[in-house]
Amino acid sequence: MIVNVEALISSGERYISLVESVPLYYLALALLSYYLSVMLYALRWKVILRGTGNDVELVRLFKIFMGSIFLNNVTPTSRSGGELLRIVWLSREKEVPLPISTASVVYERVLEAVPFMFLMLLGALRLLHDGVLIAVMMMGGVLLLWAKWDSLLRLFLRLMKSELDEHSISQLEELKHSWRVTLAGIGLSTAVWVLDVFRIKVVALAFGLNLPIGVVVLISVANMLLGIASITPGGIGIMEGGLIGVLIHLGIPAVFAVPVTLMERFVSYVQSTVVGMIVMFSSGGAEIWRALKSRS
């Protein structure tokens, strides 16, 4: 199921009309923080791949990431289509073995979960009565994945009927034991979340709202959770309605909650979809995705 084009255009027009009334420097700061986040994502991926002995150009990884963002934004269920595209695109273009490409993306998610759980804990302590228990259970799941990484990796390779030699398999297993890769990945993931909080702060300031940092962190956590829970293409409808509801719940009047949400979605969804589409179709990603769809 692909997002309705007319709905996307209609939403885009509404976002653009709102953004036109925003001071340019706030919009520029929000966009800068967004693309810096994507660059940090690409850098984290590069660090992990280098840990497996595969050195890929940062610019190429950035382009693949932008293409995956477009696909995530126009297909149901956050990240599912884009992650598959990333894995196959990297493997075909740079001759990185498919299991290594896949494991690198999975390991990204493991490292990303550390700062995410920290923000979840902060948000849960403030917002939910049983939030501490939820956060602890989620962190327990991450630690279990970490502890069983070698076993899960070998199971995955068997399911894929991989023909990797023992040297390549040992490269993947060593990811967990490479503290340089692990700490760099966690540090870059943390920097991305800091930029996410900064972007929301800037968007609020664009409409005269100087929100306390604690409230901004809560909004960021809610934004992440809504993105994970969304089943519509790009979270259309769910993200907007949910974020407006969260802002109002936190005491922000609807007259501010609506434009703040619309500007945030313009930066993180509308313009990123357009830019990601241009990058994907100009860099060879479209052909790879069509080939993937023909197999399904």
Report on the architecture of this protein.
By secondary structure, this protein is mostly helical. The protein has one domain. It contains 13 helices and no strands. The longest helix is centred in the middle third of the chain and has 30 residues.
Structural class: mainly alpha
Q: How many helices? A: 13
Question: What is the strand tally?
Answer: 0
Domain count: 1
What is the overall shape? globular
Strand content: under 5%
Distance between the termini: 13 Å
Radius of gyration: 20 Å
Task: Summarize the model shown.
The chain is mostly helical and 296 residues long.
Secondary structure blueprint with pairings:
Layout: H1 5-19, H2 24-51, H3 58-74, H4 80-94, H5 98-127, H6 131-147, H7 149-159, H8 166-173, H9 179-205, H10 213-229, H11 238-249, H12 254-282, H13 285-295
